[in-house]
From TrEMBL, chain A:
CheB-type methylesterase domain mapped to chain residues: 6-185
Lineage: Bacteria, Pseudomonadati, Bacteroidota, Flavobacteriia, Flavobacteriales
Protein name, UniProt field: protein-glutamate methylesterase
Organism of provenance: Flavobacterium cerinum
GO biological process: chemotaxis
GO cellular component terms, A-Z: cytoplasm
Pfam (any one): CheB_methylest
TrEMBL record, chain B:
Molecular function (Gene Ontology), one example: S-adenosylmethionine-dependent methyltransferase activity
Source lineage: Bacteria, Pseudomonadati, Bacteroidota, Flavobacteriia, Flavobacteriales
Organism: Flavobacterium cerinum
Domain CheR-type methyltransferase: 1-247
Transferase keyword on record: yes
PANTHER family the record matches: CHEMOTAXIS PROTEIN, CHEMOTAXIS PROTEIN METHYLTRANSFERASE
Listed Pfam families: CheR, CheR_N
Domain of life assignment: Bacteria
SUPFAM superfamilies, per database record: Chemotaxis receptor methyltransferase CheR, N-terminal domain (SSF47757), S-adenosyl-L-methionine-dependent methyltransferases (SSF53335)
Protein name: Protein-glutamate O-methyltransferase CheR
GO terms classed as biological process: methylation
InterPro entries: Bact_Chemotaxis_MeTrfase, CheR_C, CheR_MeTrfase, CheR_N, SAM-dependent_MTases_sf
UniProt keyword annotations, A-Z: Methyltransferase, Transferase
Length: 194, 269
């Protein structure tokens, strides 16, 4: 792990997770107060049902206002966005979110790789990518793209993950800037732009 | 990978050489599709791709086919179809003749889903389903009504969630890994090429379905398409969009009223 530099100039924190990641978020989100200088986007593998249970569950756990993502939803600092089920979530140049129903990637839609790569193109150095617990290999290519674009990459310590495969795969192939336990992830996020 | 400038060059050249205008497409998705094609076809540099697109009409066709997203399914979002079944079709059914337009129908799965609903509501005989797409190749698939058999399990589940009571498999004949849907469903369908970017209104409809097509357009092009739908809808006609699409920011919204939480709007004047 690199020295514990404080991240500054962050416009977007994008978090990818699969099996076992919701538990992590349930621990982290209540600890976060308002984060007015950047937006958070969650890309979680979820069932392709059309309800908004996940959004509601997350909204209960956090003080950060949760915005439902529809086509061309503006991405604003201070808000938390959840990628809807059965769409890929993409980023446009004018700070707008767009959606796409093209083929699944890594058997997933939303795919973490797709959103991470798209965010990396738009936000470059101003992007922090965090990959949590999961049982497949989604997210690794996305973290590589974030790194290549000059962003910061963080991976949950696989030993603290319910499903270590996804973070472990990312560590093996990407050499992330930070590998953090759950409590350190919380601390890391609160220090962004501080 | 192509860069942003190259993408704009490609868009301009395609318009110049082939008359197709992708300028109003959302860039994030378009760039992903073009990149995918670039890799799929093993180009070593952008100018190689560009000259092939310019000079080979067959390759341009392939490009249109590959960069437009043609992922679709039968009874996608089953609860949407349930609302059509229970709330919209009974009202449309009072008309002597019902016209539908599936704008951006892709390979036709949603058109066949609609035909099944109409058949079950005993309305298909007095209905006409226009189905259009920019891409002639997917329209050929749609005309045939032949879909991969492996999808039928999921479609059958969707169908049941939408309120379907029959055995879904009686709508198709299974053969060599494909399911062919009956001509009793397709006889009321009319397939035709239509480009939402450049073509106009061609009839008056009672229900226009355009689901998960507008997500690929920027705001201006969305506005154009929405105005086209507004023009093409009969008084008290319905407009149905995808679950994450809306008319909320469009001037046409004043003339429409939304049905509960569904992405279905009724023209009020």
């Amino acid at each position: 792990m690199e020295k514990n530099r404080i991240i500054s100039g962050c416009k977007l924190l994008i978090i990818g997770g699969s099996a076992g990641s919701l538990e992590v978020l349930m621990k982290i989100l209540p600890g976060l107060n308002t984060l007015p200088s950047f937006a958070i986007v969650l890309v979680l593998h979820r069932k392709s049902t059309e309800d908004t249970t996940l959004e509601e569950l997350i909204a209960i756990k956090t003080n950060i206002p949760v915005r439902e993502v529809e086509d061309k939803t503006p991405l604003l600092p201070g808000y938390l966005y959840v990628a809807p089920s059965d769409y890929h979530l993409l980023f446009e140049k004018n700070d707008v979110l767009s959606l796409d129903i093209s083929e699944k990637v890594n058997y997933s839609r939303p795919s973490i790789d797709v959103s991470f790569e798209s965010a990396a193109e738009i936000y470059g150095k101003s992007l922090v990518g965090l990959l949590l617990s999961g049982a497949n290999a989604d997210g690794t290519e996305g973290l590589l793209a974030i790194k290549k674009a000059g962003g910061t990459t963080v991976v949950q310590n696989p030993e603290s993950a319910q499903m270590p495969t996804m973070p472990q795969n990312a560590i093996t192939y990407t050499a992330p800037d930070y590998i953090l336990d759950i409590e350190h992830i919380l601390k890391f996020i609160t220090l962004i732009n501080s | 990978m192509i860069d942003d400038r190259e993408l704009e060059v490609l868009i301009n050249e395609v318009y110049e050489y082939h008359g197709f205008d992708f300028g109003g497409y959302s860039r994030a998705s378009l760039k992903r599709r073009v990149d995918r094609l670039y890799q799929l076809d093993g180009f070593s540099n952008f100018s190689e791709m560009l000259s092939k697109v310019r000079s080979e009409p067959g390759y341009f066709k392939r490009m249109v086919e590959e960069i437009t997203v043609n992922v679709t399914e039968m009874f996608r979002d089953p609860l949407f179809y349930k609302v059509l079944r229970e709330e919209v079709l009974p009202i449309l059914g009072t008309k002597p003749f019902i016209r539908f337009w599936h704008a951006g129908c892709s390979s036709g799965e949603e058109v066949y889903s609609m035909a099944i609903l109409l058949k079950e509501a005993n309305l298909l005989h007095k209905s006409l389903l226009y189905a259009t797409d920019i891409n002639p190749i997917v329209l050929d698939t749609a005309k045939k009504g032949i879909f991969p058999l492996q999808m039928m399990k999921q479609y059958s589940e969707n169908y049941m969630t939408s309120g379907g009571k029959k055995d879904f498999s009686h709508y198709y004949t299974a053969n060599y890994g494909f399911a062919k849907f009956g001509e009793d469903l397709s006889e009321k369908m009319v397939f035709s090429e239509h480009n939402l970017v450049s073509d106009g209104s061609f009839n008056e409809f009672d229900l226009i379905l355009c689901r998960n097509v507008l997500i690929y357009f920027d705001k201006d092009l969305q506005e154009r398409a929405l105005c086209l739908f507004d023009e093409s809808l009969a008084k008290l006609g319905y407009l149905a969009l995808g679950t994450k699409e809306t008319i909320k920011f469009s001037p046409i919204q004043n003339r429409f009223r939304q049905l509960n939480r569904e992405k279905i709007w009724r023209k009020t004047e």
